[in-house]
Write a structure and sequence with these properties.
Elements: H1 2-20, H2 25-38, E1 55-58, E2 72-78, E3 91-96
Antiparallel strand pairs: 1-3, 2-3
């Protein structure tokens, strides 16, 4: 989790520096919109839904590679699961057989 926040802080620093060096208000607004859409912070709000009883979402954002272990069946795939969204890969909803 610490690596995730370090990556997010670096991403924000680069984006803010790019905006600070640009005096054009329209481009600054576009850069901020891009940052909020594509940053980990901007992806926190979306959810595929909570896991029902006997199930859980597998896969860790931002680089997801969800899979179900033996004894569980994949019921659904999503980019966000019940939390932070994936930049790559998917989270999977695993339910007990």
């Amino acid at each position: 989790m610490k690596t995730f926040f370090a990556f997010a802080a670096t991403f924000v620093s680069v984006a803010v520096a790019a905006v600070a060096n640009n005096n054009n208000a329209d481009q600054s607004a576009a850069a901020l919109d891009y940052l909020m859409t594509n940053s980990p912070a901007g992806h926190q709000a979306k959810e595929d839904g909570p896991a029902p009883p006997g199930c859980y979402w597998d896969g860790t954002a931002p680089l997801c590679a969800g899979s179900c272990p033996t004894g569980y069946t994949e019921k659904e795939r999503g980019s966000c699961g019940d939390g932070a969204c994936c930049w790559t890969g998917y989270k999977v909803l695993c339910c007990k057989d």
